Amino acid sequence: MKKTQFFTIILFSFIFIFPCLLGLCFPRKPNSIPGNPQSSSDNAENFTVSCLNTKTNSVSEVKLEDHLVGVLAAEMPASYEVEALKAQAVAARSYILSKLDKTNPEHPNAAICTNPAHCKGWLPESEAKEKWSDKEKNAYWQKLRAAVTATTGEYMLYDNQAVEACFFASGGSRTENSEDVWQASLPYLRSVENNEYSDTTLSQTTFSAKEFIQKLNNAGTQLPLGTAPTVSDISRTDGGAVASATLCGKTFKGTEIRKIFGLKSANFTVTVAPDSVTFDVIGNGHGVGMSQKGANSMAKDGKNYTEILLHYYTNIQIVKM
Ligand SMILES: [Zn+2]
Description:
This protein is an alpha+beta fold. The protein folds into 2 domains: 44-169 and 289-320, no CATH class; 202-282, no CATH class. It is 36% helix and 20% strand. The protein has 10 helices and 14 strands. The protein has a 3-stranded mixed sheet. Strand 1 and strand 2 form a beta hairpin. Helix 2 packs across helix 3 and helix 3 (82-99) crosses helix 5 (134-149). The longest helix is centred in the N-terminal third of the chain and has 23 residues, at 3-25. It is globular, with a radius of gyration of 25 Å. It starts with a helix and ends with a strand. The relative contact order is 0.15. Mean pLDDT is 89; it is low at 14-32 and 34-41.
């Protein structure tokens, strides 16, 4: 064999054969998360995510399964039924996994944060226990951990992507379509029936005529403070929330009205009196995805967490990491 031929064979081996052999010895992770190339472990128990603690402003790599116990403590009452807590664990896991392949301008160095208004809320064990009585402390933390452990690695999938599993505290007789609250129409966030029995959160807020006009002016109108309040042309979404309404001649989306007047949800009726305006509000939250009170009601009815998730998230699959 000529010297040049020998080196050609060696070079060929380095470029083509050795990498293939290495591939056989170290195959690609079989269960990396679809749509989430950053998945860092084959093993759900050891799967980690980078998390920005917004209280301490520090980023750390946390075990997802441990982190989820603190998410449950922050996001759902620990007194809720076990099956509702399990549904919440799977929903929160799916939501977090859905965020992993997206860059986040608010925290580019971390996949998720602990700000409930941005990603998902989270409480360390010590803080969670401060919320509970002495009798409840250990039992509740163990209950939350059990809900996470019972569903280890389980999350929801739609079209090979982790489901952005939104949820909210309480709603009316139906949930909302995602596009009626935000921009995107997600096929698994459809308006479905919601039964919270007599447990639905109801609230009432009254504003004087002057306060009502002031709040509208803060939102861009330029009305004299003596203007008489008027509310007309109320249209509603499939879920029953206000889609839009005209307040003193200007048309707002229901979600804008919720924000302007600090209402618990956009599902409201309005009563206009000569010198005041009263909002009667049904539910608490945006109304998209799983109602937590609804999930608790279904669990009390004997439904398991799979049935709860399949009800609130349309045409999803529950899979394991
Ligand atoms: Zn965040």
